[in-house]
C-alpha cells in the first residue's frame, strides 16, 4: 500500500512539473490580444486558431493548443515572445499588451492590424525587437516607444503612421536598426540613437536640412536610406565623413548641392551612393570617385554641368549607375553611366536662370 502511495505521489509531482503555471496577468493579456482580432480573419489552420485557453499557454508539450505564436520563459511562467504568422489577421493591438512585461519579441508583420500603436507599450521594458511592418497602423508613433531602453530593432515600415518623429528618439541607446519607411511621417529629422547600424526612412514626407547634429556620434552607421522624402538644402561635407558609412540612398528629394571634402570621406567602406532625382547643380562631385570601394553611383535626374571626370570611366574600375538626365557635356556615349541622355539645353538654361553656357 505504501509503495502505491509513493508511486501516486511521484506521478502527481511529475504532472505538476509538466503543468505550466503561466502568470495570470500574462494569460489575461493573451486573452485580450486574441479577442481584439476579428474571428473571421483567423484561418482554421493558423497559429491563433490553436490558442485555446482551456489549456495553459506555456504548457508542454504543445501538440494541439498554442502550437505556435507564443514562446515562454524556461520556467514556463512568463510569455517572452509573440510572433504571428502572416495570414491576414485583422484587428487592433490591445493596450493590455502592456501586461506582458517579460516580452522580448513582438512581431505582427504582414497582417491587417489597424488603429493606433498603444502608448501603454512603454511597460514592455525588456522588449528587444518590435516588428509591426506591413500592416495598417495609423496615428503618430507614441513617445512612449522611446522609453524602451532594451530595444535593438524597431520596424514600423509600410503602415499609415503620421505626424513627427519622436523628439527623444536618441534615448533608444540600444537601437541598432530603425525602419520607418513608407508611412506618412512629416517634420524634421531629430537626433538619432548613437548605436544605429541601419537607418531607413524612405517614402515619407520628412523635410528640412540634414543636420550634422542629428548624426552626431553615429560612428557605427552603415546604411542610410532617406530617399523619397522632401529633404532640401546642401548635403554637407560632414555626411560622407561618417566613418562606417557603406550605403547611401538620398534619391528623390530636393537637395540643391553636395559638399565632399578631399579625400572623399573619412571611411574606406563606401560602396553605393544614390543621389538621383534631386535638384543638385554645379559640377559632378568628383571626390566621390576617389573612394576605391565605390561600386554604384547614381547622380541622374539632377542639373549637373561641365564634363564628368575621366576617372569615372577608367577601364576595369568603372562604377555602375547613372550620370544621365543632367546638363553634362562630353559624357562618353559608349558608357552605361551616361544613359539616359542629357537634358535639353533649353531645360538646363532655364534651371540656371538663363546664365548657363556650354
Largest sheet: 12 strands, mixed
What's the number of helices?
3
**Beta-strand content:** 15-25%
Assign an overall shape: elongated
Low-confidence stretches: 1-5, 7-18
The assigned CATH architecture is: Alpha-Beta Horseshoe
Order of helices and strands: HHEEEEEEEEEEEEEEEEEEEEEEH
Strand order of the largest sheet: 1-2-4-6-8-10-12-14-16-18-20-22
Number of strands: 22
Question: Would you tell me which CATH topology applies?
Answer: Leucine-rich repeat, LRR (right-handed beta-alpha superhelix)
Tell me roughly what share of residues is in helical segments.
Answer: 10-25%
List the helices and strands and how they pair.
Blueprint: H1 2-18, H2 24-35, E1 70-72, E2 79-83, E3 90-92, E4 105-107, E5 112-115, E6 129-131, E7 136-139, E8 153-155, E9 160-164, E10 177-179, E11 184-187, E12 198-200, E13 205-208, E14 223-225, E15 230-235, E16 247-249, E17 254-258, E18 272-274, E19 281-283, E20 296-298, E21 303-305, E22 320-322, H3 345-351
Parallel strand pairs: 2-4, 3-5, 4-6, 5-7, 6-8, 7-9, 8-10, 9-11, 10-12, 11-13, 12-14, 13-15, 14-16, 15-17, 16-18, 18-20, 19-21, 20-22
Antiparallel strand pairs: 1-2
In short:
The chain is of the alpha/beta class and 358 residues long. It has a single domain (71-351), classed as Leucine-rich repeat, LRR (right-handed beta-alpha superhelix).
